[in-house]
Amino acid sequence: MPRIGYTSKHMRLAAAAVIAVLLLIPAIANLISNSVMWTAEDFAAAALLLASAWIGIEAVIAVTSSNGIPRMILAAVVLIGVLAAWLHLAVGIW
């Protein structure tokens, strides 16, 4: 019996869909509210950061051989780095 599960193609499609939905949230808020004022540069920066997180996690998965703690730690490091960059761009922490 063949093994049923998610392939990397399905996971990549799901990641792309999540990024698209995350970018749609401020786009819709831009249309219905005056308090959200994102420009094209804001959307480009958000897309770049989300794509960086995706590529970073893909790299972690490709480099690590197990599904254990090292993979989770490296993925967390990637996400913390992306979050730090996002915070810096949003409010200029440093």
The figure for the number of domains is 1
Q: What is the strand tally? A: 0
User: What can be said about the biggest beta sheet?
Assistant: none
Helical content band: over 70%
Strand content: under 5%
Global mean pLDDT: 86
Termini separation comes to: 55 Å
The string of secondary-structure elements, in order, is: HHH
Going by helix content, strand content and strand pairing, the class is: mainly alpha
| Number of separate helices | 3
Spans of at least 5 consecutive residues with low confidence:
none
> What would you report as the Rg, rounded to the nearest angstrom?
16 Å
Describe how the helices and strands are arranged.
Elements lengths: L7 H25 L7 H24 L5 H23 L3
Helix pairs in contact: 1-2, 2-3
Structure description:
With 94 residues, the protein is mainly α. It has one domain (8-91). Helices cover 77% and strands 0% of the residues. It has three helices and no strands. The longest helix has 25 residues, at 8-32.
Write a short abstract of this structure.
The chain has 94 residues and is mostly helical. It is built from 3 helices and no strands.
List keywords for this structure.
94 residues, mainly alpha
